[in-house]
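User: Fold this, then the next.

Assistant: Folding the first:
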Amino acid sequence: MPLYEHVYLARQDLSAQQVEELTTQYKGVIESLGGTVAKVEYWGVKSLTYRINKNRKAHFTLLNLDAPAAAVAEVERQQHINEDVLRALTVKVDELEAGPSAMMRKSDRDRDDRGDRRPGDRDRGDRDRGDRGDRGPRRDRDAPRGPREDRVETAEVEATEE
């Protein structure tokens, strides 16, 4: 049977449990039509690049399928009817990934990077601001500001001379 990677996006106002129920429903459709679901990954709620049906975020779920084309077509048909599913994409692949998908590897790497930092730390690299002594003197608020005030004075002088 052909192998597929299927990703669907569910509305953000659904709970994680409701998304899991949708996944179970679609998994049942695949299995009833002679296919198998090799792996299910819930990627969580992520921001969308652009709004889809007034939604800015969505629940992302990946299904790795080993199923006939008719089963995949039926799942896609049901997802297009369902109001809770915003988008679905199915891609035929030569082989399925054995380990976690790229999205899951990325989130694991991000968690590891953040674990080393303390809250409030910033990545300053090699630059150290020190006491900022190299900035020079500060301009006093009452000191003249330059050409603009000179123009005003000359305009007043010309008006009084006439």
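Now the next one, as you asked:
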Amino acid sequence: MDRLRQRADFLAVANGARANTTAFVLQGRRRDDQGPIRVGYTVTKKNGTATERNRIRRRLREVMRQVDAVFMRPHHDYVLVGRRDALTRDFATMLDDLRSALRRLDRPAPNTGNNKTGTNKAGNKSAPNPNGMTRP
């Protein structure tokens, strides 16, 4: 596993999928190259003093180090955005949270809004417009 270092990489991952937990937000994005898995860590200033932010970052690094690479997809970038609760959350619980978040990122995105089958969200056929077109 490599580290993310460039700001552009962090911004690209921020536009990808995300999974929220109590202690962190996991962001993930597939890359087009054949490189290794890369991981980045970030903790904003609103989470406390520099000492507290560093402690959060260290805990996140250790959680990521201990999780099996089986849960992570090859050719992906991941960013862990630390939250204040990462200071006090039980470490074993954080491991479970990370595994769960990685599984949630792997799920396909639900199809929202682009319903071209002629049915509404309830699954019922939509009534035709006066001009013969079906309503979305």
